[in-house]
Model the fold of this input.
Amino acid sequence: MAEVLATMVVGPLVSMVKEKASSYLLDQYKVMEGMKEQHKLLKRKLPAILDVITDAEEQAAAKREGAKVWLEEVRKVAYQANDVLDEFKYEALRRKAKKEGHYKALGMDVIKLFPSHNRIVFRHKMANKLRMILKEIDVLIAEMNAFRFKFKPGPPEPTNYLRQRNSDIIDPTNIVSRSRDDEKKDVVDRLLAQASSPDLTVLPIVGMGGLGKTTLGQLIYNDPKIRKHFELWLWVCVSDNFDVDSLADRIVKENGCKTSGSSAPEKLQNAVSGCEASGSSAPETFQNAVSGCEASGSSALEKLQNAVSGKRYLLVLDDVWSRDEHKWERLKSYLQHGGRGSSLLITTRDFKVAQLMGTTEANNLKSLDEIYIKEIIETKAFGSKQVEQRPRELVEMVGNIVKRCSGSPLAATALGSVLRTKTSKQEWEGL
Done:
């Protein structure tokens, strides 16, 4: 499946990412404030990769292994860039909804999709993610030049294409939501069934990139039963950085957690009392007291422990990659202080990560049924046109395109978006 996506869908996927990077929403609602240079670089470098995709795909089809591997890496980076740009887009939609006095858009409650609403925290978090994406793209461009892939232009896009679409007129999220309803119900029921468990439940959602793991996680996170059952809801996107201390700090800050504990004077008094009991001298007592005060409750992990202590909480760790068992056990030791029934929901592409972290059977996310893939493609390709207005010869070609997507909603979205710019049977066949 991965090879099919790498060699047949990577071009449309990169095109979709390029389009998202150019969305008017990003500038209008200033969600990339302080990242203008990185944004310019992203918009400049994506077309450079897109220019040689056709040549790379032809070489991959001719069994050149280096081209295949490069395309697979392009696909991975495109997925990551797509996720990052989606976060920017949803933040823009959140600001738009807030400005207009309502919070409904794209059929979902966008105010809840990403729990962090602190602009400073959001800017810091997203700047780091954008830097990582640009580093990956630099590597891809260096390899692209080493392989000497040649420029092969595709058919030109209409000059007013981006303005016509507005990028958020149609979104496949509601289609994916309907298609994952049974899986959502299964995970919700399994989490609720652990209500009396004294141990921390860790339930992984596993699947390849583009299947909709994050979307499913959001549906579960915002389910009314989950909101009623848990006292505290936490969400953080992990990606490649599984530094335990910074991750704990982000969980606390991005979710606006309140941490309990003694005040500084109380900590100092307690530390002094402890030192007096040990028979230390006055200077030693004061020095030990200060040291103890600095160490006690000051670390990010201790703040996280205080935030969850005694509460039945749900923490979603989205897009986990790390297989470092020691890091996971260290984080877990501070998370185990929640109330009975506390749970972690993790999303990952790596089955070994799921095996390492999970305490219960993973939810292995299946490919989307073809009926939903077809709906996504037609929705993106034909827009708001009524069924009777859609060219019959193009509609008849959708079935073959569905098979190329291998059940991936992201691939369907990418292909559908590109097909929207093409109006003839010959153009569709050339994709």
In short: Residues 309 and 338 are 5 Å apart (CA to CA). The chain has three domains: 2-156, 183-243+302-360, 264-295.
